[in-house]
Design a protein that fits this description.
two-stranded antiparallel ribbon, mainly alpha, 2 strands
Length: 374
Amino acid sequence: MACQLTQGRCSRTLQSCKPYAAMVSLQFGYAGMNIITKVSLNHGMSHYVLVVYRHAFATLSIAPFALFLERKVRPTMTFSIFLQIFVLGLLGPVIDQNFYYAGLKFTSPTFSCAMSNMLPAMTFVMAVLFRMEKVNMKKLIYQAKVVGTLVTVAGAMLMTLYKGPIVELVWSKKMHPQGTVAVEADDKDWVKGSIFLIIATLAWASLFVLQAETLKKYAAQLSLTTLVCFMGTLQAIVVALVMERKKPSAWNIGLDTNLLAAAYAGIVTSGIAYYMQGLVIEKKGPVFASAFSPLMMIIVAVIGSFVLAEKIYMGGVLRGVLIVGGLYSVLWGKYRENKERKEKEAMSLPVAVKDEVLEVDKMEIEKEKPATEA
């Protein structure tokens, strides 16, 4: 009996750790995408065309799994679900990715990731507006969530106004003694890039909220991911044809970093990420799923200083701390809210637990009877 209880606890612990492990893994995937994509954009890749190729790769990579694994459980397609999938394709592949890549082109990977840390705050605001989150300003936990949201947004907005001195890192000094950095070109427009990134983050937050609602009606994550990527590919083709109509050569792609960026972003951060994100949202909700973005900023800052010789500014560090502080104020409020809810639900658990224990005891007695009688 003790062994069974121990195994049960271990199993529950592993199950509870899965969403955390999934979201941490995704941040490493997103970080790699930021670095590889920045290199591709620096080499002249059109971000409109990159979005098309990215989601074409995503569709082709995940469609076989959806067709085979969910052929018996795929819900019936209705017009309402189709409309939601159409909007998801517009929010994620088209609006989010195009504006994010445009913002990345005008700024840097670390700056882009730092601005993306507004995602949990924006997701929380939208979840409140759509009544997926509750707010009662008389309680501390809700005050923490609201204040954290305001601090996060303020920190992100201030990043566009002040850079501060460069933070010299030991390895970046050794690797680039002259201090010349390719990604810190003079033609960067940080304000324009910031606006693009804010629009992208707003679209991303909207995708989180709508995806959570869509999964309630269409509970087939692989199929939903495939349909969103496919719909996004079609929409992105239209956008790219319009924006690159005077430059047909923008569609050319070879065995280079452009192909690597499209394949990596499509397979890892669209196909796999959309699927894993859907699983986590279904289990933990959109606010939890968006809460791990600060980890991506740290990963990109370290890798970017190695690979791209990216400069890190003191202003960015300070506001990064401000953003993360506000973010985890939101998360603390979310954690306390979930804990209170579970405690209320657990009010009736002792009776059930007693019944389970009695049932286990009866089974043990029945098993021991033959041995005793013998």
